[in-house]
Amino acid sequence: MSNIAFQGIEAVTLATTTEAARSALIGILQNAFSGELAAAYAYRGHWKSLRKPSEREKVRSIENDEWIHRENVRQILNQLKASPRRGREVRAWLIGRSLGIGCHLIGWFLPMYFAGRLESRNIAEYETAVQHARTLGLAEYLDELRVMADVERDHEAFFREMVATHRLLPVFRSIFKWG
Fold first, then answer.
1. Opening angle at CA 108, ends 102 and 112, nearest 5
2. Cα separation values, 9 from 12, 23, 136, 173, Å
3. What is the per-residue pLDDT for 16?
4. Band of pLDDT at residue 173, cut at 50, 70 and 90
5. How far apart are CA 110 and CA 174, in angstroms?
6. Roughly what angle, to the nearest 10 degrees, separates helices 86-102 and 2-49?
7. In whole angstroms, what separates CA 16 from the centre of its chain?
8. Staple 37 to which of 82, 92, 109, 157, CB 3.0 to 4.6 Å?
9. pLDDT at 8 over 80
10. pLDDT, tens digit, for every residue of 73-117?
11. Where are the alpha helices (DSSP H) in the chain?
12. In Å, how far from its chain's centre is CA 173?
């Protein structure tokens, strides 16, 4: 009798865990989808504001990576029968465009610093998505999510290198805990 009770509890726990993991994964992917839009538009303004050709080309390449990630996330959302959140999309578009314009107005350091900080958060987001996909047994998404985390890691490393010797870094590091 106690075995039946435990089996019932295990089934409920598994169902609850599965539902929670699915909901969390979809939420992360919806946020990532919109976040990639904001980042891509911000990077577009960022690379256009830069003077050094090597920096312009690298940030332009990062913009392209963000568009690729957006498409990859769209495909996963579609396969999960989920869709982006319209309100987040509008907000992301506004934020990305505003940041892109702001890059022309606020100088070199702030866009480089906050881009790196953003990328570090993106790494954690994709790594958490990997954990939820693994919990759900969605092995077909694991490699792609890991690749996206690794690409974000490369982006973060680039921005970290860019600001490493800037005189404002110690102040920003103490306030924002990155760098």
1. 85
2. 5, 21, 19, 47
3. 61
4. very high
5. 15
6. 30
7. 26
8. 92
9. no
10. 999 999 999 999 999 999 999 999 999 999 999 999 999 999 999
11. 2-49, 53-79, 86-102, 109-135, 139-163, 169-176
12. 21
Dig out the tokens for 140 from the structure. Answer: 């077909």
Query: Is it the case that residue 4 has pLDDT exceeding 60?
Result: no
Split at pLDDT 50, 70, 90, the class of 44 is very high
Contact 109, 117 (CB under 8 A): no
What gap in Å lies between CA 179 and CA 177, rounded to an integer? Answer: 7
Query: What are 6's two structure tokens?
Result: 């435990």
Domain ranges of the chain: 2-176
Give the chain's end-to-end CA distance (angstroms, integer): 58
Tokens coding 100? 């892109």
| DSSP secondary structure, 121-136, as one string | HHHHHHHHHHHHHHHT
Question: CATH top-level class for 2-176?
Answer: mainly alpha
The encoded tokens of residue 31 equal 């946020």
**Which amino acid appears at position 118 of this protein?**
L
Place of tokens 């039946």: 4
Average pLDDT value for residue range 49-65 = 98
CA distance 16 to 173: 40
